[in-house]
């Protein structure tokens, strides 16, 4: 009789188990809702230790370091091989100078030049220069959008980030557990007509020379993404952080596909307007994305710290930006998104905020004991 009752109950047990599983995984937010959640407030801003993963120091002045200390921020200074602004060597000199005096507040990401690309000794010399920068305190390496959008080979073809000549560099980074930071391509808006853009109409309208929609002879947006993905497929052990939401700022679904496919991939959160736009359209989906991928997202601003005649005003602008973005992540207060309307902040749990604002960056850079 007991066996018959058990036999009759078995289908109900199976259905109950399936129902519970479905409820648990239907929304990633519930993965953190199985215990009491805690939240930060605006008043906690000054006391929580934070990290900005995307800063560019273009001056020897120290006002930014002063503000970072006041606001309890540490940060990563990133050097670029860019053809405008402060040259790469001067960026390195500025960074090394600050690093000597503020080693407890800042970390450094170096880069490499493509000036002698195609020459037989390019990889050897590049590795030599990287070794020197790393020995002087750099903890990461940046690859910039000039590879994919400017650099050409001897045949006049664009060099992409999956080019085999970069393989020795990437292999070296893997062997030495050095993360690669990648700014690949531009926002997808750059390849769209002005009327289809989300945020960039003003800039590309004023600078048609940079508007790739008008220059079909250049690699497409998808070419940039495909080359980056292929680079990661070729080097699955490479620790990689995609700047600007991995150049997938327009779609959380597309970004999620990459985070699922590449377990060593992180992204920084420097295109905040896109994140707020996603929140404006679907707050629940955006918040669920943050909770599901809480170990792979890193706070950053992409702030350019330039010389100024009014350091106090500059410091205030930095502070105001950090405060404004803190509000978006830790509260559900109303936020206005220009040209669209109002949205509510994400109000993420403290454990998620701690990861996004510090723990993930320190893990990426190998600075857990810093």
TrEMBL record:
<dbReference type="InterPro" id="IPR032465">
    <property type="entry name" value="ACMSD"/>
</dbReference>
<dbReference type="GO" id="GO:0016831">
    <property type="term" value="F:carboxy-lyase activity"/>
</dbReference>
<dbReference type="InterPro" id="IPR032466">
    <property type="entry name" value="Metal_Hydrolase"/>
</dbReference>
<protein>
    <recommendedName>
        <fullName>Amidohydrolase-related domain-containing protein</fullName>
    </recommendedName>
</protein>
<dbReference type="GO" id="GO:0005737">
    <property type="term" value="C:cytoplasm"/>
</dbReference>
<keyword id="KW-0456">Lyase</keyword>
<dbReference type="InterPro" id="IPR006680">
    <property type="entry name" value="Amidohydro-rel"/>
</dbReference>
<dbReference type="GO" id="GO:0019748">
    <property type="term" value="P:secondary metabolic process"/>
</dbReference>
<feature type="domain" description="Amidohydrolase-related">
    <location>
        <begin position="122"/>
        <end position="367"/>
    </location>
</feature>
<dbReference type="Pfam" id="PF04909">
    <property type="entry name" value="Amidohydro_2"/>
</dbReference>
<dbReference type="GO" id="GO:0016787">
    <property type="term" value="F:hydrolase activity"/>
</dbReference>
């Amino acid at each position: 009789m007991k066996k018959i009752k058990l036999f009759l109950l078995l289908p109900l047990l199976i259905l109950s188990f399936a129902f519970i599983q479905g409820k648990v995984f239907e929304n990633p937010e519930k993965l953190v809702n199985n215990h009491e959640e805690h939240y930060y407030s605006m008043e906690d801003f000054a006391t929580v230790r934070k990290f900005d993963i995307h800063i560019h120091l273009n001056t020897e002045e120290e006002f930014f370091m002063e503000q970072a200390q006041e606001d309890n921020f540490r940060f990563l200074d990133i050097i670029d091989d860019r053809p405008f602004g402060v040259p790469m060597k001067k960026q390195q000199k500025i960074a090394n100078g600050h690093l000597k005096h503020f080693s407890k507040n800042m970390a450094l990401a170096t880069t490499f030049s493509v000036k002698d690309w195609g020459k037989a000794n390019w990889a050897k010399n590049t590795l030599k220069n990287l070794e020197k920068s790393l020995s002087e305190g750099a903890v990461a390496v940046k690859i910039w959008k000039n590879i994919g959008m400017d650099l050409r080979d001897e045949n006049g073809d664009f060099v992409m980030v999956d080019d085999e000549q970069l393989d020795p560099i990437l292999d070296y980074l893997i062997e030495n557990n050095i993360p690669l930071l990648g700014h690949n391509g531009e926002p997808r808006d750059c390849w769209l007509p002005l009327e289809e853009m989300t945020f960039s109409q003003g800039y590309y309208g004023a600078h048609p020379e940079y508007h790739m929609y008008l220059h079909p002879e250049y690699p497409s947006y998808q070419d940039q993404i495909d080359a980056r993905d292929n680079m990661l497929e070729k080097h699955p052990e490479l620790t990689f952080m995609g700047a600007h939401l991995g150049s997938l700022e327009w779609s959380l679904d597309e970004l999620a596909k990459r985070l699922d496919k590449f377990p060593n991939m992180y992204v920084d959160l420097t295109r905040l307007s896109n994140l707020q736009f996603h929140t404006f359209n679907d707050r629940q989906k955006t918040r669920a994305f943050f909770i599901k991928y809480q170990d792979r997202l890193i706070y950053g601003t992409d702030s350019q710290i330039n010389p100024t005649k009014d350091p106090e005003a500059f410091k205030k602008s930095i502070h105001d930006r950090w405060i404004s973005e803190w509000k978006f992540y830790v509260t559900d207060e109303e936020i206005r998104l220009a040209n669209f309307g109002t949205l509510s902040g994400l109000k993420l749990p403290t454990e998620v905020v701690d990861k996004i604002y510090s723990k993930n960056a320190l893990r990426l850079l190998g600075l857990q004991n810093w």
